[in-house]
């Protein structure tokens, strides 16, 4: 996994819940390609027409609140979101996304510093967020354990790797 990411920003507000990320009326879909068609549908029905692999979601506080619906994280991974940068995350969404291999970055006031369409770069190791070439914020650094999960592609690939090598650290 790359530790230096770049992409365009899509900015959303506070309290973006799992029903906005992936509306409950679509939970009947189980194929990842079908699930991907409805990413952020409750907040922006045109989102999947605009987003490109590696782009970022930027949001205010409490991103991913609501139900424990894992589809919310699955749909964002399926459309290729590079990372989600928010002022805070709902606990269950945070674990679901990290376990699927989606970088989640906590950065106070970030939603006030970035606009939709801004070209960002993000250093996962240092937490530096840049707009064009200028440093605009430094997020909370990710722990080595979380970086290890992300580098493995998620918690399941990490566990499989550990079991195969006998390394359970």
UniProtKB/TrEMBL annotation:
Keywords assigned by UniProt, alphabetized: Amino-acid biosynthesis, Branched-chain amino acid biosynthesis, Leucine biosynthesis, Lyase
Single annotated GO MF: 3-isopropylmalate dehydratase activity
Database matches in NCBIfam families: LEUD_arch
Function: Catalyzes the isomerization between 2-isopropylmalate and 3-isopropylmalate, via the formation of 2-isopropylmaleate.
Assigned protein family: Belongs to the LeuD family. LeuD type 2 subfamily.
Keyword Amino-acid biosynthesis: yes
Annotated Gene3D superfamilies: Aconitase, domain 4
Domain of life: Bacteria
Top EC category: lyase
Pfam family, one: Aconitase_C
One biological process term in Gene Ontology: L-leucine biosynthetic process
UniProt domain Aconitase A/isopropylmalate dehydratase small subunit swivel: residue ranges: 25-102
Catalysed reaction equations from the record: (2R,3S)-3-isopropylmalate = (2S)-2-isopropylmalate
Description of how the protein assembles with itself and partners: Heterodimer of LeuC and LeuD.
Designated name of the protein: 3-isopropylmalate dehydratase small subunit
EC code(s) of this entry: 4.2.1.33
Pathway: Amino-acid biosynthesis; L-leucine biosynthesis; L-leucine from 3-methyl-2-oxobutanoate: step 2/4
């Amino acid at each position: 996994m790359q530790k230096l990411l770049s992409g365009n920003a899509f900015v959303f507000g506070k309290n973006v819940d799992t029903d906005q990320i992936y509306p409950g009326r679509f939970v009947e879909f189980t194929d990842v390609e079908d699930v991907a068609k409805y990413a952020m549908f409750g907040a922006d029905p045109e989102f999947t027409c605009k987003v490109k692999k590696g782009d970022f979601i930027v949001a205010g506080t409490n991103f991913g609140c609501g139900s424990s619906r894992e589809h919310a994280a699955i749909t964002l991974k399926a459309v290729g979101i590079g990372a989600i940068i928010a002022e805070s995350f709902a606990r269950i969404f945070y674990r679901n996304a990290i376990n699927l291999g989606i970088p989640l970055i906590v950065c106070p006031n970030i939603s006030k510093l970035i606009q939709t369409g801004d070209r960002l770069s993000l250093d996962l190791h240092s937490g530096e967020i840049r707009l064009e070439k200028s440093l605009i914020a430094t997020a909370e650094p990710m722990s080595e354990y979380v970086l290890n999960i992300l580098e493995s592609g998620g918690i399941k690939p990490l566990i499989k790797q550990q079991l195969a090598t006998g390394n359970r650290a």
